[in-house]
Known about the structure:
- The radius of gyration is 19 Å and the shape is globular.
- It has one domain (9-364).
- The strands form six sheets. A six-stranded mixed β-sheet has the order 1-8-9-6-3-4. A two-stranded antiparallel ribbon has the order 2-12. Strands 5-7 form a two-stranded parallel sheet.
- It has nine helices and 16 strands.
- The protein has helices spanning 9-19, 39-44, 94-109, 111-117, 146-158, 190-205, 261-278, 282-288, 307-311, and strands at residues 32-34, 68-70, 78-86, 127-136, 143-144, 170-175, 181-182, 222-231, 234-241, 245-246, 252-253, 297-299, 321-325, 331-335, 337-339, 344-346.
- By secondary structure, the chain is of the alpha/beta class.
Amino acid sequence: MAKKAKTSSKAKTSSKAKTSRKKKLPFRIMNVIVRPNSIGAKMRYRGRPRPSAGELAQGLTPDEAQDLRFRGGRTIPHLSYLNFFVGGSNAWVSSDVDNINNALAAAMSDRKLNNVMRQYFANQAITTDFLGSHFVGSKAPRLVTQASAKQLVSDLFDGGQLSGIDFPSTVVNLLLPSRVLLTDGTGPGAASKRRRDDDDDDDRKKPPGTPEKEDASSAGGLGGYHGSVDTGGRHILYSVGVFSEVLPNGRQNGIVAFDQPWKNVVATFYHELNEARTDPDVDVANETQRIEGVIGWNSDAGEECGDFPVDSTGGDLSLVFQEVPVDGGGTAPVQFQYSNAVHGAEGPIAAPHPLSIQHEIKEAA
């Protein structure tokens, strides 16, 4: 793993702060999924309290303070996505590819899971269209950075592999094969540490809704992130995620929540796609130093719909990472998303929550 606009005077003050040179966002905005109690998670919570264990898990005490707010930016009720398996066919087990494609498509189109997410779309129906999968490249890289991930998306566009898609509503998924490390663009190291130390004071001053900064690698708990690339006159949405697994040395790469790595991959991209549909232009917010009118939905802590459920587990990932029944039979491994209606992580529900108990939904209508 990354992170509803309010028309209060406080929100207006935050918007103005983003446009001033003195109080501009002091970091690169990222939208990530990170493993609890990992290096990446510790970086995220530097300088502010961590959530208590299990705070948002189903059946435990809800926390209304973590509710998402609509910031006035774009959302995507009718989403499409493509899967690009990096490293070519030799880097992947064919059964893993099939399982990932089938389970992710089933999860993203499941009615009961979507009933949770409809609250961020004024209770209107949402749809997801899987546009197919492709292998890309002939050799697995050892390391993928934010820069190289964005370059790969540009290369796919230049090579005609993204022809015919509706760019404003489509996410290009980059799935990394086994043992490939992912960083958010800087990764661990002395230079990164110096930058983080320099930014500590700025972190404490950031206004509500400021998305989280990240400086992590998958070796330190990073599972993936989503963003956008501007190339060839197109604004292209993408997400990238690792093949989360226990390595031969006993250490984890990414976020291991299930008994098979392919299931971890599905849960990671379920997280990223739901965040992309509720907050697609967070990279634009970083570039323009603006939140209001650019960010879709996030919390006052700067987190998106998938973030706090993971953060709140205290390390017990089974609270929010579960295999659930899906339409058409079978199950899919997913990560429960944040629900304003219950003020916490919520699994599949039979019917959408009534609009009367939802928070700020009218703002997104």
